[in-house]
Specification:
It is found in: Cell membrane. This protein is mainly α. The protein has 10 helices and no strands. The chain folds into 2 domains: 32 residues; 214 residues, MetI-like (MetI-like fold, Orthogonal Bundle).
Length: 262
């Protein structure tokens, strides 16, 4: 499918969503916030200071700050964990059960335990969010490490490539699809957990604003905050991740066919 066709399908889906939203707002106003009301609320959010005289970008920035700091920690820890499990059978046999047990712990339980252990402040979020995300990254990278082609590494060694060159030219390119899949998975999970932390524990951020307007049963304003953050995530995906993925994987046209656990 060419780029123009994809663009037209995207535009058509957005128009369809807006039409359904408008109809839902007219027929079920107590459940679906009206489109005009949501637009008016969005204008207010973007132009008027909120709690403690903070503009919308203050809360968005605080959420982004916590989210991406947690993503960095999770990607590093999860990658190290996954590669270690995928390349060491003894370690895999020892820790595999515990990784699956870690994945089974509900995110809400981790958030509440973090609050009890650390306190009702941002430190709990910086602890809880990586704790939730890391096993998902580890699972992806574990699968990637198990699928590394050892023959390529042996061939590189035969032709005189050092360990560093083998790692950068042989190992990293093979892990690249799994790294991108891991980051996308971590981003999709991480922003939800970040909002959860802010809603329950903090007095700033997008999650806090959700809780504030939930308490007031202000659906249009809640939807406005959702729109702001969803737009940001779409910009990250199509403005950063997709072009970067395309550039990194130019040499490997069949990379889209790689099966990655998510």
């Amino acid at each position: 499918m060419d780029r123009l066709t994809r663009y037209l399908y995207t535009v058509a889906s957005v128009i369809t969503l807006l039409a359904l939203w408008y109809v839902g707002g007219v027929t079920l106003p107590e459940v679906v916030p009206g489109l005009p009301e949501t637009y008016a609320a969005l204008v207010v959010v973007l132009t008027t200071p909120g709690p403690y005289d903070h503009m919308f970008y203050f809360h968005v920035w605080k959420t982004i700050q916590m989210l991406f700091a947690s993503l960095v920690v999770s990607m590093i820890a999860g990658t190290l964990l996954g590669v270690a499990l995928g390349r060491n059978e003894t370690l895999e046999s020892t820790l595999a059960t515990w990784v699956y047990a870690w994945l089974a712990i509900p995110s809400l339980v981790i958030v509440f335990l973090s609050a009890i252990w650390i306190g009702f402040d941002a430190s709990s979020g910086y602890f809880a969010i990586p704790l939730v995300i890391t096993p998902f990254v580890g699972l992806n990278m574990w699968e990637g490490a198990r699928n590394l082609d050892d023959d390529l590494a042996e061939m590189a060694e035969f032709f005189g490539a050092g360990r560093v060159q083998t790692f950068t030219d042989i190992v990293i390119p093979q892990l690249a699809p799994f790294l991108f899949a891991s980051f996308r998975s971590a981003l999709s999970i991480g922003w939800k957990i970040t909002l959860l932390v802010e809603a329950f524990l903090l007095t700033r951020g997008v999650g806090f604003m959700f809780r504030r307007y939930f308490d007031q049963y202000d659906l249009p304003t809640m939807m406005s905050w959702l729109i702001i953050f969803v737009v940001f995530l779409i910009v990250v995906e199509y403005g950063v991740l997709a072009p970067l993925h395309e550039r990194v994987m130019e040499w490997r046209p069949d990379a889209e066919g790689v099966r990655v656990t998510e």
